[in-house]
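Last lecture ended with a question: if I hand you only a sequence, what can you say about the shape of the protein? Today we answer it with a concrete record. The protein is TfoX/Sxy family protein. Below, first the input exactly as provided, then the predicted structure, then a couple of comments.
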Amino acid sequence: MGIKGDKLNQDATQAAELITEKLSAIHGISAKKMFGGYGIFHDKKMFGIVDSKGQCFFKVNELNQSDFEQKGSHQHSKMPYFSIPEEVLVDQNELIAWAKKAIEFNK
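The predicted structure:
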């Protein structure tokens, strides 16, 4: 989830804890340490990541990628994950709506 050679740090751990807490209204949300960051899962299927620096990303496809791009998000490496816009991260209802889209599109 991080850049090669980066180590997991407290920012990543805090971000993973915060996002799973904010998404707790969605049954089946969990986080797992992976590659210097965290994978964010719904019912054991990954739909989000937290990189080693603590930045959060949701999985995108052709149906929701433009939503992320319009808000100024950037892609994580070459992976199909885009950064969650700050205005979405701070609005729990909006964050849950965006997470549900990422989960639905990930099926």
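Comments.
1. The helical segments are 10-22, 65-70, 86-89, 92-105.
2. The chain has one domain: 10-105.
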